[in-house]
Every structure is written in C-alpha cells, then in structure tokens.
Fold this sequence. Notes:
This protein has one helix and six strands. By secondary structure, the chain is mainly β. A six-stranded antiparallel beta barrel has the order 1-2-3-6-5-4. The longest helix has 12 residues, at 92-103.
Amino acid sequence: MSSSYKRANTRYMVRLEAEVIRDDQPIAAWIVDLSLGGALVEASFDPPMPVGVRVDLSFALPGLEQPIRAKAEVRWVESDAIGIQFVTGFRAKETWALGRFFERLSPA
C-alpha cells in the first residue's frame, strides 16, 4: 500500500467471535480489526477464500439483542486471514452500537 493511502474509516483492534457464511456454509471466525467499512477476519478457510467472493458476516456486540449481520466482499487474502469490505450499510441501531463500542477502544 502506498504511503498516500488513507482509509475512509478508522480501524479498531478487537477480538470478537464471528461467523463467516459462504455458500450457506458457516465458518467459525474471529474479527481482529474492525471499522464501519470493513474488517480483518481470522479463520481456517478450507478451501481458501478467493478475492472478490461475497460472504455474510455475523457477530455480536454489547448492547444489541441480535447479532449484526453484514454482507461483505473479500478484498485480500493472507494465510488464515481475510480482509473484507462491507458492501451494505448497517442499520441505524447497529451503527449506533458500533459507535458506542468504538468509543471504548483505541484506533489501530
């Protein structure tokens, strides 16, 4: 990445249990870096996730009764980690809960 590259959203280091769903197959995963625009997700992907594939991501946050479910696209792959970009926006309640959650964290 060039030194002039700047993310549109601040990233936060986290450790959240998650589920990645590809082709209706759930995969247990961990979100280790999260923003309103995307996430870094670690899991054992077998077969490996190809760049460009669409997945669903589900994870829980404090203050929300239901897990957040987001559609995302795999932007890069490295070993047992994928970088995903959310392709649909969050609902207002989810955006509020994410904002409150991020207030307690330091940017990555």
